[in-house]
């Protein structure tokens, strides 16, 4: 049987694994333990511009998970992309020129989880937030937080003057333990409601997103689904497996909660918003999230450059893709006139909704 995540040989004496990024291991480990693994002979590519081009195209062709969506949304034909970029490869081109061509080819997919890494640059596509309002102000954030806020691992928190608790979670890349969350929630025991601000949170470890979400449910909830590649074809996927959020054994929040979002919310933070929308006491306020619902994996080209790409698509509880983002329950942006008066429109909207 073919391995789910086969090993690839590219170039002379080069042995590189197609592997999930470190942030994805904890989610996928139970799945990997059930997968029979066997060695597969892979086509070898020379360490020259042509070989690196073909290796990159083939990695994406066999393992990228959103070709169907990109075909529908952007008209992407990966074979046509190959035919269009192949003439740009010259045997005498230097690394800078090769990197630019390969990065441009990957940019056709407009996927924030698709990157090319070298020692001198990172090819990326940030269109999921660059062409949208930021809906976040550092100066307003400092005003609302003041200087006497508390810090617990990656969480900054305080009680606002209307007795609404406020937590800013700017990343899921920094882990927090169950003890951290117990202390934070205990601080808000006398509060009437809670705001969790994940604006500008571009992701991190999905396990941390699940850990935080587990504090807002008293029963196991199927919050979404995921699939994995089962073959080399663009449409070769496993059946959908559920993502279940189980209630934490620690303190849990039973009052109303608002989650604040903007277009910078991506990847694991996008998943967190997806989980929270499943809970009846939650309202999502702000702008649509940026998406990023493909679990990222990494591989390597013959010249040692790394490539990251979306390999496992994830879906919401209705089995709908969230790669392009999640809409809020209450859409509101940061208004210029409010910002001029020192008011965060999104925070104040959430406070009004929570105290109705």
Task: Give a short overview.
The protein is of the alpha+beta class and 356 residues long.
What attributes characterize this protein structure?
7-stranded antiparallel β-sheet, disordered N terminus, 356 residues, 7-stranded mixed β-sheet, elongated, 12 helices, alpha+beta, single chain
Tell me about this structure.
With 356 residues, the chain is an alpha+beta fold. The chain is built from 12 helices and 16 strands. It has helices at 25-32, 49-63, 67-74, 78-85, 95-107, 127-130, 138-145, 178-187, 206-213, 268-276, 336-340, 345-355, and strands at 7-9, 15-17, 19-20, 115-117, 122-123, 150-152, 155-159, 164-169, 193-197, 221-226, 241-245, 256-261, 282-286, 294-300, 306-316, 330-331. The strands form 3 sheets. Strands 3, 4, 5, 10, 11, 14 and 15 form a 7-stranded antiparallel sheet that branches. Helix 9 (206-213) runs parallel beside helix 10. The protein is elongated, with a radius of gyration of 22 Å. Mean pLDDT is 89; it is low at 1-41.
């Amino acid at each position: 049987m073919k391995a789910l995540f086969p090993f690839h040989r590219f170039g002379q004496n080069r042995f590189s694994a197609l592997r999930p990024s470190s942030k994805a291991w904890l989610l996928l480990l139970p799945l990997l333990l059930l997968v029979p693994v066997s060695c597969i002979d892979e086509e070898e590519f020379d360490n020259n511009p042509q070989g690196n081009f073909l290796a990159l195209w083939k990695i994406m062709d066999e393992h990228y998970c959103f070709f169907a969506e990109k075909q529908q949304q952007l008209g992407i034909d990966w074979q046509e992309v190959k035919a269009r970029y192949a003439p740009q490869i010259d045997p005498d081109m230097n690394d800078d020129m090769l990197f630019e061509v390969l990065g441009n080819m990957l940019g056709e997919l407009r996927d924030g989880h698709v990157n090319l890494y070298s020692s001198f640059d990172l090819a990326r596509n940030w269109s999921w937030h660059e062409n949208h309002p930021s809906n976040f102000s550092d100066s307003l954030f400092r005003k609302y937080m003041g200087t006497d806020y508390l810090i617990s691992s990656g969480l900054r928190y305080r009680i606002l003057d209307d007795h609404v608790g406020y937590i800013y979670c700017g990343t899921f890349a920094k882990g927090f333990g169950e003890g951290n969350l117990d202390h934070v929630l205990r601080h808000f025991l006398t509060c009437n409601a809670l705001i969790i601000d994940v604006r500008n949170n571009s992701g991190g470890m999905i396990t941390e997103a699940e850990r935080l979400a587990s504090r807002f449910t008293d029963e196991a909830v199927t919050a979404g689904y995921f699939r994995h590649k089962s073959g080399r074809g663009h449409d070769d996927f496993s059946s959908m497996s559920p993502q279940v959020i189980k209630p934490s054994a620690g303190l849990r929040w039973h009052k109303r909660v608002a989650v604040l979002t903007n277009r910078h919310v991506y990847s694991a933070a996008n998943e967190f918003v997806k989980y929270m929308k499943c809970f009846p006491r939650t309202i999502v306020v702000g702008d649509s999230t940026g998406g990023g619902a493909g679990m990222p994996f990494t591989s390597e080209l013959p010249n040692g450059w790394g490539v990251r790409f979306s390999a496992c698509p994830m879906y919401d509880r209705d089995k709908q893709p969230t790669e392009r983002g999640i809409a809020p329950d209450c859409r509101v942006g940061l208004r210029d006139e409010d910002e001029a008066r020192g008011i965060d429109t999104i925070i104040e909207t959430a406070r009004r909704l929570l105290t109705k």
